[in-house]
Specification:
Number of domains: 2
Structural class: alpha/beta
GO biological process, one term: riboflavin biosynthetic process
Number of strands: 14
CATH superfamily of the largest domain: DHBP synthase
CATH class of the largest domain: Alpha Beta
Strand content: 15-25%
Radius of gyration: 23 Å
Distance between the termini: 68 Å
Protein name: GTP cyclohydrolase-2
CATH topology of the largest domain: DHBP synthase
Order of helices and strands: HEEHEHEHEHEEHEEEEHHEHHHEHEHH
GO cellular component, one term: cytosol
Enzyme class: hydrolase
Helix content: 25-40%
Bound molecules: guanosine-5'-triphosphate
InterPro entries: GTP_cyclohydro_II, RibA, RibA-like_sf
């Protein structure tokens, strides 16, 4: 049978950088090891989140000769006071083979994720290659913690592993956003008599984003726009823990009242952490942490979103000047960075309830959301 290696083929099957990172993300989703090449050589990587004890032990013994490193994000290290110096760089600590009497893998997981781990080892700066492993875990919406081998020289054997370069990971998000293309559209009447057209965009690795065009927007004025991050709990199930579901409805109604506009619905569940990690964050909130600290104990930044995709979609639809419906200053700067001119901002403030009051207060106090006091004082 004729065999071809697509990665090294001169035939063009898409952007090789996106392909390499997409494949590495597939390995993380499947809890399989892969190789990361950087300035200090090759490191084999296994993401912790989703891997079981057997896989972790097999990785440390089989890929790392019994001596690996546990790498966690700098954000978690800082939150848990694991390093004296506190910058944002990832940090690592040695992990020895369980068969040689090293720590068991449940303990490794505890060090990487628990709110109050028992005695923790000392960590040192991880460097760029091991740090990139953590970034990849985040891109796969897994807890940012990985087992990595010590740097090795590349060998022919490594070619059978999925391999990605650190520099490819660093440009991945922005490059991927620029591949979004409209693939289908249709009229969708929404509750309360709102007329809309859904335009579905797809990127080069199959990710979906939606533009909901409400009414018949005035082409000569700045377009009223709501950029909304997905929230399965709030948008679909009406969770009272957040304001997302109500903001979605309020946003659509405001766009209609303004004579038409566009709601960009982005696949950014849990501020980009993903649904599983949002639930981990909720568990930490139920133990007393606020939303910001909960995300950071898990090793994420408070907010992992960026707005390249929204900017790209708006431009693709022919709108570069907008009025943005948001309370979140980061969306204003994020869209401006994506090349969108924001001529005005309109608030989207809902009334607080007993379950989301602390969430809203934290948004205002720690993330600078422009909520005023009206929404927080009025409780439903
Ligand atoms: N990590 C985390 N994410 C949450 C929590 N509560 C809600 N979210 C997510 O936060 C995001 C809120 O999205 P938006 O409503 O578009 O944005 P916003 O940052 O509130 O800004 P505006 O609504 O535009 O003012 C959604 O992705 C939710 O899933 C939480 O407790 N933890």
């Amino acid at each position: 049978m004729l065999q071809k290696n697509i990665a090294s083929s001169s035939l063009s099957f898409g952007d090789p950088i996106l392909t390499a990172v997409h494949r590495a993300l597939g390995e993380i989703q499947g809890n399989r090891p892969f190789a990361l090449t950087g300035e200090d050589g090759v490191r084999f990587v296994l993401a912790l989140d989703g891997s079981d004890d057997h896989q972790m032990a097999a990785f440390v013994d089989g890929f790392c000769g019994g001596e690996a490193d546990l790498v966690i994000s700098g954000v978690r290290a800082r939150m848990m006071k694991l390093t004296p110096e506190s910058d944002d760089g990832a940090v690592l600590t040695p992990v020895t083979s369980i068969s040689a009497g090293g720590p068991d893998m449940a303990r490794v997981m505890e060090i990487a994720t628990a709110l109050k781990p028992d005695a923790v080892p000392s960590f040192t700066p991880a460097g760029r290659t091991a740090g990139t492993a953590v970034d990849l875990a985040k891109l796969a919406q897994r807890i940012p913690a990985c087992l990595v081998s010590r740097p090795v020289e590349p060998t022919d054997d490594d070619e059978t592993l999925i391999t990605v370069r650190t520099e490819d990971v660093e440009v991945f998000r922005a490059r991927l956003a620029a591949t979004l293309k409209p693939v289908s559209e249709a009229r969708v009447p929404i509750a309360d008599g709102i007329a809309s057209r859904f335009v579905i965009f797809r990127n080069a690795i199959g990710g979906i984003a939606t533009a909901v065009i409400v009414g018949e927007p005035d082409a000569t004025a700045p377009l009223p726009v709501r950029v909304h991050s997905s929230c399965a709990t709030g948008d679909i199930f009406g969770s009272r823990r957040c304001d997302c579901g109500e903001q979605l409805q309020l946003g659509l109604h405001r766009l209609e009242e303004l004579g038409g506009g566009c709601l960009i619905y982005l696949d950014q569940e849990g501020r980009g952490l993903g649904l599983a990690n949002k639930m981990h964050a909720y568990t930490l909130q139920d133990q007393g942490l606020d939303t910001v600290d909960a995300n950071m104990v898990l090793g994420f930044h408070d907010d992992e979103r960026d707005y390249h995709a929204a900017g790209f979609m708006l431009k693709r639809l022919g709108w570069e000047r907008i009025t943005l419906l948001t309370n979140n200053p980061t969306k204003l700067t994020g869209l401006a960075a994506a090349g969108i001119e924001i001529s005005d901002r309109l608030p989207v403030v809902t009334k607080a309830n007993a379950d989301n009051r602390r969430y809203l207060e934290t948004k205002a106090r720690r993330a600078g959301h422009l909520l005023g006091t009206a929404g927080l004082l009025e409780t439903v």
